[in-house]
Amino acid sequence: MAFTKDSTKKKVIDRFDINLDHDIDEQYQYVPGEALRGHILLVLTDTIKVKSITVQIKGEASVSWEDSSRETVRADEVYIDLTYDVTKTTPGIPLALQKGKHKFPLEYVLPLNLPSSFIGKYGSITYVVKATLKEDKQMGMSTTITSEPFLVLRHLDINSEESLSKQKTIKQEKRFFGTFAFCINGKVSATIGINKTGHFPGEDIYINAHIANNSPRDVRGVQAALVMNSRFNAKHQHQTNVQVVNKRRDEWSLEAGEARKWTNVRLTIPPYIPESRLDGCDIIDISYDLQFIVDIASSKGIIMKVPIVIGTGHTPPSPEILSASGVPNAQEYIPNGKTHSTVDPLDLTRIPEDKKSNRVSTSFVHDVSDVNANLEEEDDKGKEFRRPMVPGETRQNPLYSAAEN
């Protein structure tokens, strides 16, 4: 959308747009080192004299927040700042453009060290092409401005890191004491394992878990969540933001002597999600954790964390291949007095009647101030991270549309 600073009532400039040439399926999403090509489209209803049509290509990161004294803390990084005149006119001599359609080509090879686009609660990394037309008139100067944002997606190769393709298992238990501190009254133990710690957007994390309740407390549920941790740095200070990207909660309660087992339960990584680290940017950093939480009545519960690395540039294998070693999305209930009793996840006939109302729920992208307390059911919000843009679209906050809540 073009913006004109002019008091003239007659509309001479019918269109002033930036059109970028790119694969229609990727819609203005580029990788560092790729050529940014397109043209400036100018449609006139009458002849005008143009002093200049300048194009500015700018990429920058900016973070800001208010500290405890209400002072603004801010930091900026500039990755691209290029301005040039596409008309190539002689300085001081206006260019006469006739009525009709005019196209001015533009081309720029993006630097190799650009960080990926990102918009968060306290900062962003953005890229934009802006065109400014200055029209020479008898009564002064008229300025028309149009702009078009584009996305950069930097490649993070995790295939070269062998450790990220290996399985990871951790164990933890919580003990409860009786009247005397040295008298153990029982414990809740949890073991969680995942198929690997390096993943790509759109892939599933396969989770195996075993929870045993050998305590007088009830286990009210278990939850697995993929959490994104964003850190914003400025002037030797920092702000952090924690966001639950996706979660899966098992509402099955466990009484004393009961146990619960997950077998290849899938937690999906959204297809448009920033890669880990945000290489190339020094003022914003991103990391991910898989958090596994056991909710215990009248207790802080068990919280287990596995660091996850999200890469880019990969086509996920089919679910059939990933689930070949077990039944996907199978949760197994082990009743009191039994240690192994496999239950078909779709067959509730062998589950005690008081357990049939419990079910597994999944929800996407929730902002939370305390992830450890995030054990209650929440509404699906379906927020997206890095969706492709429609040509001509200008948008704000594509990754954190609820970040200010």
Automatic annotation (TrEMBL):
InterPro entries in the cross-refs: Arrestin-like_C, Arrestin-like_N, Arrestin_C-like, Arrestin_domain-protein, Ig_E-set
Residue ranges annotated for the Arrestin C-terminal-like domain, each copy included: 184-317
Pfam families: Arrestin_C, Arrestin_N
Alphabetized SMART domains for the sequence: Arrestin_C
GO cellular component, one term: cytoplasm
GO biological process: protein transport
Coiled coil, from the record: none
UniProt feature, compositional bias: Polar residues: 394-405
Region (Disordered): 369-405
SUPFAM superfamilies xref list: E set domains
Similarity-based family: Belongs to the arrestin family.
Protein's recorded name: DgyrCDS4754
Organism: Dimorphilus gyrociliatus
